[in-house]
Here is the input.
Amino acid sequence: MSSSIIIGKIISRLLRLFSSKGGTALPGLIALKINPNLINQIVKKNQLKSIIITGTNGKTTTSRLLGSMLQAQNLPFLHNRSGSNLLRGIAAALINQSDISGRIKVKLARRIKVKLAIWEIDEAVVFTAVKQLQPKIILFNNLSRDQLDRYGELDSILKSWQESLSILPADAQVIINRTDQRLKQLHFPQIIYFGQVLSLGHYQQANILAAQALAHTLKLKPSSISQGLASFRPAFGRGETFTFQQKQIKILLVKNPAGLTAVLNQLQDNQQLNQPLLIALNDLIADGTDVSWIWDANLEILKDRRTPIIVSGLRTADLALRLKYAGVKEKLIQIEPSLNHAWQKFIAQPGRNHNILPTYTAMLALRQLLSQQKIIHSSWQD
Amino acid sequence: MQFTLAHLYPDLMNIYGDQGNVQTLKFRCQQRQIKLIIRPIRLNDPLPPGSFDLLFAGGGQDSQQQLISQDLLKRKSVLQKACQNNIPMLTICGSYQLFGAYFQPFSGPKMTGIGIFNAYTVASKQRKIGNIIIKTKFGELVGFENHSGNTFLQSRTKALGTVIIGQGNNGLDKTEGAVTNNVFGCYLHGPLLPKNPLFCDHLIQLALANKYGSIKIKPLNDRLEWQAHFAAVKRTRKLHHPLLKYL
Here is the structure.
């Protein structure tokens, strides 16, 4: 175990030395190549109680909400941030937080041993994650079309989830969002359900209910739960607002049809359909290489728009065409493949509430751009 | 002018934005003051002979395919007759497979198709995923393929096109899709029609020709369509380039 940790740590140092993009999952990837059981070994050594959070939408926000509640109760925990939700991301987080013998060291004011770990897990790797982490709690948020190029079809994901339940420790607790009909197919002797009164697509409320369900399962104090909710700050691109030139700018990550439709509904509810809008569509692996998903999202919500929409990203032209067929007037569709130009044009639009809807890698590029221009602080967590 | 589009299994067979094809047909008819009546045909819905001028069916997962295959078989004679009468039809991915002789999925029983294409499909372990460009008599078509089935064309059935970049029917013989009379089948999602306006207009033209005789439909302003087409072609070429793909 030690050699794989040492190599992981060395790579991690080197990466930080030579690249501005710290915190990548590469050290984890290589360490796992050397020692495929590394995760399980570190977990066992530290008797870590793992909580897995998975689903198409809301993994990051739910994890961070729970994190905020745990903080309110002064409970230390590990968390794989930065959207590194494949096994390599888990391994990277464990390597970074442990000494070379695999003992977890978290710098804390008080010396409390870390017992809890919150893991955001990609839908497609739940089975291996369960096998390695032997979680005490697993939460399924929802399942909808997302990156079929990578995951194959929904049925195969659901099947793999059921298989992961069959290898779950018997004392583990399974929490499922009741509003998602597909998830009703999952069986386990005892299931805790949440979200009965929700309508699907209201992710923010769903995430809060999911985090509350987790908190109850962990028997957190009610005061910690409410305090955690009150002090919660969204991750970059998950609805956080910042101000620039007296304009309120909001970045709303879009990844799949259900998520994009939900965001557009939210703009409609907030009466912001004619406020400045920038949509950026990329087709890298983290975005999904198949962009046909935009045809399954309800972009028709934008059809009566009277002000320009700036479109950007590696698949700008696909997005522009989709908007045309959604009924948006062609002269309002402004094509700016370069994100920098798109941003300049976007910020010059008159309005108070500026909304940016990027896919995942477009969001990362945007964050880099904004922090280079000192518009946001570079330490903004994701 | 008006004509009727039968949209087969709009709920069960629509997973890769395939309904965008129907939307595109509708939009491009609207622009020309042609009325397109869209009739969704779900399981057990009647589809009498002669009730449609154009038919579309999209892709679906294995389990959905399993669900529709029995229903489709009941429509075999109606659809074969329509094929003989030169009714244009477009079938994508899962529907395309079932318009052939059969589809043998990875697990589960073999599904009998309606045999409009003289072709059969067998699931393989290797999923064929990625951008695809094919050369056809309607020019280059660009889209995105994602299928585990390998389709093999047999005698008398022509391919829709030749693969320039991508995998196509089976990843082996460079063919993609199939054509019998005016019935087309292929693996191109994306969806297919928005970025390939010539092919879309060809379908409209075929449907109108059966009804009103040979007429020329007026060209549209396809600036964004061609921009998306050529951008997708360029992107596909880049992603396929041995060195440029890393940039």
Remarks:
- Residues 238-372 of chain A form a domain with the Protein-Tyrosine Phosphatase; Chain A fold (CATH 3.90.190.20).
